[in-house]
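P.,

For your records, the input lines for the assembly:
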Amino acid sequence: MKSFIECSACMIRQSLEILNKHSTSNEQKSDILKLVLKALSETTITSINPPQLTNKVHSILKQELHIQDFYSEEKKESNKEALRLESFLNQLIASADNPLLTAAKLAIAGNVIDHGALASFDLNETISTVLEDHFAIDHFDRFEELVSKPNRILYLGDNAGEIVFDKTFISLLLKQHQTVIYAVKSAPVLNDVLLEDAKETGLAAMIPVIESGSTTAGTEPSEMNAEFRNYYTNSDLIIAKGLGNFETLYGLNDRKNKFFLFKVKCPHLGKYLNLSMKDIVFLEETF
Amino acid sequence: MKSFIECSACMIRQSLEILNKHSTSNEQKSDILKLVLKALSETTITSINPPQLTNKVHSILKQELHIQDFYSEEKKESNKEALRLESFLNQLIASADNPLLTAAKLAIAGNVIDHGALASFDLNETISTVLEDHFAIDHFDRFEELVSKPNRILYLGDNAGEIVFDKTFISLLLKQHQTVIYAVKSAPVLNDVLLEDAKETGLAAMIPVIESGSTTAGTEPSEMNAEFRNYYTNSDLIIAKGLGNFETLYGLNDRKNKFFLFKVKCPHLGKYLNLSMKDIVFLEETF
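Structure tokens returned:
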């Protein structure tokens, strides 16, 4: 999916947030901001996808600030906060009428933890509302049917913190005789999950966790490493979490049984998909 | 007052709003946005004031879109909407314990009508809350003392719609034996008042209205024309409405009895002045 011209505003917002957090002086902020603006002015924003655009901007910020991971503290904090909720999440799932549906909805609720799209969020409020919500795009029945038999599932992670919500979903999938491999990013970008997040949250002790090769806030096909590509091609089912994975992998028509689970966190994407802000989506790519 | 680096985000937001409203194609939007980004990348934002920055960006938009006045319809609509409130405003003033204070507060409430700073606003809600509010910076006593005697007042307007609120304030000042001259901008910028707004709202039939010479969303000293400069220098008192006039005229220490009346509509300006969003200000420049 290509970027909207409105993505430029988000890029500036993200850059300012990072500069205000990590810059040493106003002069440095101003100089680096100029470089970001120049790069954006030389980019046909609508010709690349949003994670590619983010990467272009963040590469400059990383290089100029000599920092590779702008959200390392926030990620640790998100993981801790989510881990404190883990037993509560498992209880909600265990006591649900449809545990699989509840686990899936909670995994999507976790998608609200995002320093790329939103500056602030209320996790507890999101959990309670998401359980009441219906999917705005609802291909859950088809997913439920598929997982009634054992599958090898490739699960594409999105953000730190959210990974704990993925973990509770995955726990249930394992109980339902699914085999799950979890994929993380290969380099820090925004608050996207890395191998260390899978370790910190205990997910890596539960199932195999691999790096996708992608260094963008999505899963860039050209960056996929051989191991990941093998799983991507040969797994029975793919669960792709979050907007970044949707923006990079939806519409490729490259394989069947690919499900996108996310919360609409951008008004422009919402408009594009004819959805509202905060809608939750359980979408299968069909072709 | 110099711009903040955060002003860049506002410039992009304004540009996108204008492009989405007036552009003919996505390609045109993208091309013009590139020019805006390039100009911003070549500007040391923190070396010029916000109205100068706005002008730099809007000049490009005006030239590329071949449109001089992006908000002509909104301005007419704002004037109409405010005129519908005029008798209500006059009643509020007439029945107030301190009519001058109420008229001043209402004039500031009108400052919420701003397509530069805010995408949406609730005028009725603003009127009722502003009457309860205290000035966060309060030099009203000093103003009240000055206007206890007759003065020649130069009143610097800000936005269309808001001008009707200025008119009710000015009506009261006239009753209190003040002489008032009202100044408007010399070229369209955002929804700033022009001569036609003063005519449309009946203000021009009530008092002399002059153009300041300024083509920015403020009063740029270097642009002041001879007539305006004469009034600016020789009036007993100046009332400058809105953020643009504050951003261009505050701190010049060029004359006494200069009052700035505005509502804080930008979080960064608020932080800079140690004020909160939506605070109302009645500030005299002292030196």
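Two observations worth noting. The beta strands of chain B are 137-138, 152-156, 179-184, 209-211, 237-241, 258-263, 280-284. Residues 7-65 of chain B form one domain.

Regards
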